[in-house]
Design brief:
single chain; 103 residues; mainly alpha; 4 helices; elongated
């Protein structure tokens, strides 16, 4: 994943995404470079339009974040009702126990 970040950093800086540039950047932050992974990443990114991928990636998380709170609200509303029922049952049981004591 570190190499992907390095590639994205190079892209945002307007630099060429090459093996040498990724290695230099990774080494400058203290990472040990795996040449095989770097070669595979550079080869895979040659066929990718990074700008298009970033545009489509930024849209999806926003939609997911907006949908998530809506899904959580019914669960949050249902939980207090269940808790109230449990509390009422406990109160009823304790009252029954007291009634047995005073018979």
């Amino acid at each position: 994943m570190d190499y992907v970040y390095a590639a994205l950093f190079l892209h945002s800086a307007g630099k060429e995404i090459s093996e040498d540039n990724i290695k230099k950047l990774a080494e400058s932050v203290g990472l040990q470079v795996d040449d095989v992974k770097v070669k595979a990443l550079v080869a895979a990114l040659k066929q990718v339009n990074i700008d298009e991928v970033l545009k489509s990636a930024t849209v999806a998380p926003v939609a997911a974040q907006q949908a998530a709170p809506a899904q959580q609200q019914p669960q949050q509303q249902a939980a207090p009702k269940e808790e109230k029922k449990e509390e009422e049952e406990k109160k009823g049981e304790s009252l029954e126990g007291l009634a047995a004591l005073f018979g």
